[in-house]
């Protein structure tokens, strides 16, 4: 299982596609456990990802 799940997407999540699948669908695939921390950020990744990486790297 993955330790955590964070998805950054500027589009609506949908069932049936791997990249746009909601976390609960990934549970049925055996990728996530029911108690895995799951986060969905609805924004543009080019804006949000650098902010998250800077925070995680303490920049």
Q: Mind sketching the topology for me?
A:
Elements: E1 5-9, H1 23-28, E2 38-42, H2 45-56
Give an account of the 3D structure:
The protein is of the alpha+beta class and 59 residues long. The chain has one domain. Helix content is 31%, strand content 17%. It has helices spanning 23-28, 45-56, and strands at 5-9, 38-42. The protein has a two-stranded parallel sheet. The longest helix has 12 residues, at 45-56. The model has no long low-confidence stretch (mean pLDDT 82).
Q: Give the DSSP E fraction (strand runs of 2 or more residues).
A: 15-25%
Largest sheet: 2 strands, parallel
Tally the beta strands.
2
Radius of gyration: 13 Å
Number of alpha- plus pi-helical segments:
2
* Low-pLDDT stretches: none
- The computed structural class is alpha+beta
Strand order of the largest sheet: 1-2
SSE ordering: EHEH
Helix content: 25-40%
Number of domains: 1
Oligomer: single chain
CA-CA gap between termini: 29 Å
Mean pLDDT: 82
Q: Can you tell me the overall shape?
A: flat
């Amino acid at each position: 299982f993955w330790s955590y799940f964070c998805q950054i997407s500027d589009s609506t999540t949908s069932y049936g596609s791997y990249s746009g699948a909601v976390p609960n669908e990934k549970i049925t695939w055996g990728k996530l456990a029911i108690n895995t921390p799951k986060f969905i950020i609805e924004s543009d990744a080019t804006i949000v990802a650098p902010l998250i990486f800077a925070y995680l790297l303490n920049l």
